[in-house]
Amino acid sequence: MSDSVHSQLTETLEGLGVEQAALEELASNLLWRIGRQSDDGPVTVRVGLASSAGLFQQLGRLRGASDAEIEAAVHDGSIRVEWVGPRPKGER
Fold first, then answer.
1. H or E stretch including 82?
2. Band of the pLDDT at 46, cuts 50, 70, 90?
């Protein structure tokens, strides 16, 4: 991950009040897929709890996206994030 993307991510998390330790703890319980639904579609990140693995299989397959495509989508704000399955308890 480039320094600028890392800085942007860190800033965003701080703005949301998410502590890095809490995010790292949660990360071990998450599944994610990154790609495009079509060749000309936006870069999409699907994320959900590991307990929702079956729901990921029910969704359309994402085509691969290169690191450069992902970084460009982050920089221009065109990345699409989809939550898969029930949201964690305590979420606002």
1. strand 80-84
2. very high
